[in-house]
Specification:
Blueprint lengths: L2 H8 L5 E2 L5 H11 L3 E4 L8 E4 H11 L27 H11 L3 E6 L2 E7 H26 L1
Parallel strand pairs: 1-2
Antiparallel strand pairs: 2-3, 4-5
Helix pairs in contact: 4-5
Length: about 150
């Protein structure tokens, strides 16, 4: 199974935010969209960074509520060195990358352009569906042999 298969099932919509947006706006967007991360992109096509719930919580722990001041910008919190994947990457590869680097969201990039995002939830859902299918095939094979 490949990343392209996950995107074909879930869609390729990516919620982005500009680097000069306020942290407060990012918090509102995360809540409104009910998601855990926003891809930071000033042009909507290239990945400039990513800002996650974790980034915001860490900033709150270090700086307190001041981080929500309207003057504070996403670029102050965002992760700039973003790991990405391609539509051709295998889901098994994603599981390794996400586990090894303790990340929960991977933007999907093709030809240098943002084409989707995959979360750890997407990967787990995909793996559960694969296991259910394998179980069904094995059950059918066992029943037909008895």
């Amino acid at each position: 199974m490949k990343v392209a298969d996950i995107l074909a099932h879930k869609g390729n919509r990516v919620v982005t935010i500009k680097s000069d947006a306020s942290v407060r706006t990012a918090v509102k967007r995360l809540a409104l969209e009910r998601i855990g991360a926003l891809v930071v992109s000033d042009d909507g096509e290239h990945v400039d960074g990513i800002v996650s719930e974790r980034d915001i919580v860490l900033a709150l722990a270090e700086e307190g509520a001041e981080i929500l001041d309207p003057s504070r910008r996403v670029e102050e919190l965002m992760t700039r060195s973003v790991r990405v994947c391609t539509p051709e990457d295998s889901v098994a590869h994603l599981m390794k990358v996400m586990t090894l680097h303790r990340i929960r969201h991977l933007p999907v990039v093709a030809d240098g352009r943002l084409v989707g995002i995959v979360s750890i939830g997407d990967v787990v859902k995909n793996r559960l569906e694969e296991l259910e299918m394998e179980t069904s095939v094995l059950r059918d094979a066992w029943l037909s042999s008895h």
